[in-house]
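Continuing from the previous page...

OK, I double-checked the sequence for Antibiotic biosynthesis monooxygenase against my notes and this is the correct one:
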Amino acid sequence: MTPSSPRPATLVISRVMRPGREGDYDGWAAGVIGSACSQPGFQAALRLDQAGGMHHLLVQFAGRIALDNWTGQGGQADRQRAADDFSTGRQQVVEGAASHVVLPSEAAARKWKTALVTWAGVVPTLLLVSGVVGWLLPDAPRPVQQILSSVLLTGALTWVILPRVRRWSRFWMLRDSRGRLRTES
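Thanks. Re-ran it with the corrected sequence; updated structure tokens here:
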């Protein structure tokens, strides 16, 4: 790259899916990439999919002017609004061959939201497990019932309950007050 040539410009689009709408992202992302590929200055697109409905799409152009020309088109703005029907998102633009981007993640969720979601998964599971253990082993000493309940509770929460509760609540947990994805905790 010569000193007078433009620096590459990359649009980083991060989206977290609404529960049950994970499949809508594939067609949407293909449309974004197809639109970008047809524009002057397009260089590359990279799709990064995380487990649990978090997706990142990087679209790179030869320079900021080419990127701005593409994003300024009505079709691209319509695509972003369409994505808001099935997800919430955040867009960041970085320039240069070496760039730094902070991506949204579950670690960025507000602690009170994380605590509320965890509590919503724990309470019914705790009541069910302790009730079943107490019914099956009514004559067992209380510490034995509690130890068995805690083992069953921990297993159920780790492998069954919390992964589902977090998947269903991720869309809400990661939104900021303006409806965008959070990138900081």
